[in-house]
Known about the structure:
SH3 type barrels, 25% helix, alpha+beta, five-stranded antiparallel β-sheet, globular
Amino acid sequence: MAEGHPEGTLVVDTATTKLGYVMGREGPYVQLRPVTGGRQWDADPARVRPATEDERLTAMRERTRAMNSFSSGGIFR
């Protein structure tokens, strides 16, 4: 459950299967931000779980790819 995840923790929103960092809470929802940056989304805390080690590695690769693309003036896709 997301109540036990402090801000900055990498989690999976099982409703959308998206990885995100816990940014805070708003009302009954946990606010998550995509690993590559962008708009936060609200997730049901009951549908949020900690990321596995494989998911953490995937997130690191995605973030590195996005940062490299940004630094070279490219567009991340």
